[in-house]
Amino acid sequence: MTSSTVTLAVNGRTETLAVPSDAPLLYVLRNDLGLNGPKYGCGFGECGACMVLVDGVAARSCVIPVGGVQGRGITTLEGLGTRDAPHPVQQAFVDAQAAQCGYCLNGMIMSTVALLEREPHPSDEQVRDALSHNLCRCGTHIEILDAVQRAAELLAAAKDRP
Q1: Spatial contact of 115 and 148, defined as CB atoms under 8 Å apart
Q2: 72: buried, middle or exposed (CB in 10 Å: 19+, 13-18, 0-12)?
C-alpha cells in the first residue's frame, strides 16, 4: 500500500494524514487519530460496532475506504459529548442502564443519533428497524429500546427550552 495525503473532517477538526487512501476508515480513526469510540467487531460491516456518522448518516467505518470520505463530515462517539456534558443520547443510555459489556454501545448510540435526526419521535418499529443492523450479544435489548425513547424525550425537551 502506498501512502497518500488524506484530509478528513473528524469531530469538527481538520486532520491531514499520510495513509493509504484504501485503508479502512476505522483503522485510521483508531490507530492514527486515537479515537476509540468506534470498535472493531467483525470487519465486514455486519455488527455495527464500528459505526460513525458521515454527514449525519450512520455508516460502518470498517468497510469505508478513508479516501472515500474526504470532504465529508465524520462524527465519532467522542464528537458527540463529553463525560461532563454528554450528548442527550449518551445520557439516555446511561439513564436506562443500557449497557452490559458495552461493546455494541458505540453503534447503538451512533445509529440512535442518526435516527433521531431524521425522525425525532420514532415508533418502536422505527427504532427496531434503525437498530436492526447493530448486534448486542449481552441481552440489553429492552434497555436499549428504552434509551432510544428516552433520548427522543431529552432532545425534544432541549428544543423546547429557550
Answers
A1: yes
A2: middle
What are the 10-residue block averages of pLDDT along the chain, 162 residues in total? 88 96 97 97 93 97 97 97 95 92 91 97 96 85 93 90 72
Cα angle, residue 109 at apex, residues 107 and 114 outer, rounded to 5°: 95
Q: Which three cell numbers, joined as nine digits, stand for 60?
A: 460502518
Burial environment of residue 123 by CB neighbours within 10 A (0 to 12, 13 to 18, 19 or more): exposed
Cell numbers found for residue 29 = 480513526
Q: What is the predicted pLDDT for the residue at 1?
A: 62
The strand pair at 4-10 and 51-54 is best described as unpaired
Sheet hosting strand 13-19, strand order edge to edge: 13-19, 4-10, 73-75, 51-54, 57-60
Q: Which residues pair with 74 in a beta bridge?
A: 10, 54
Q: Supply the pLDDT for residue 139.
A: 75
Chain centre to alpha carbon of residue 3: 27
Determine the Cα–Cα distance for residues 52 and 129; give it in Å rounded to an integer.
Answer: 18
Backbone phi, psi, residue 32, to 5°? -95, -35
Inter-residue contact 154 to 102 (CB < 8 Å): no
